[in-house]
Amino acid sequence: MRKSRYSEEQITNAIKASECGIKVKEICVDLGISEATFYSWKKKYAGLFSEEGRKIKELEESLQSMIREVHELKSDKKMLQSVVKNFFTTNDKRQAVNFLQDTYEIGTRRSCRLLDISRSVYHYPTNFNSH
């Protein structure tokens, strides 16, 4: 998200000025912005004080940061699952599921999902007798 050249205070002051009767065209010329920009600001910040606008902006930045973190974690999970898939045997995966369950006290469903192993494969008997 691109950072604005104008502070929240400048934006809210421009909106307040238009509400006090100053023509939008004059405000836009003074700030060097288009009328479309002014009206998009008005739509977003109308009725907000600069403190509220600052809080909203901080929350938006925090949300964007969390979204980036989630994407990064999804990517990490995918990479680790490919390592598990390609370098571990089924028996190793079963032991890893047991380790996760015992260490982190999570269920079979979640531990199997983390290690990219189906629950039916996890529960399939390792030793079977042939007739």
- Secondary-structure element series: HHHHHHH
Oligomer: single chain
Main sheet overview = none
Tally of separate helices: 7
Label the structural class.
mainly alpha
**Which percent bin holds the helix content?**
over 70%
Count of distinct strands: 0
Integer tally of domains: 2
Q: Determine the CATH topology of the largest domain.
A: Arc Repressor Mutant, subunit A
Mean pLDDT over the residues = 88
The N- to C-terminal Cα distance equals 66 Å
CATH class (first level) name of the largest domain: Mainly Alpha
Topology:
Blueprint: H1 8-19, H2 24-31, H3 35-45, H4 50-87, H5 90-104, H6 108-114, H7 119-123
Helix pairs in contact: 1-3, 1-4
Structure description:
- The model has no long low-confidence stretch (mean pLDDT about 90).
- This protein folds into two domains: about 80 residues, Orthogonal Bundle (Arc Repressor Mutant, subunit A), CATH 1.10.10; about 40 residues, no CATH class.
- The N and C termini lie far apart (about 65 Å).
- The protein has seven helices and no strands.
- The radius of gyration is 28 Å and the shape is rod-shaped.
- It has about 130 residues and is mostly helical.
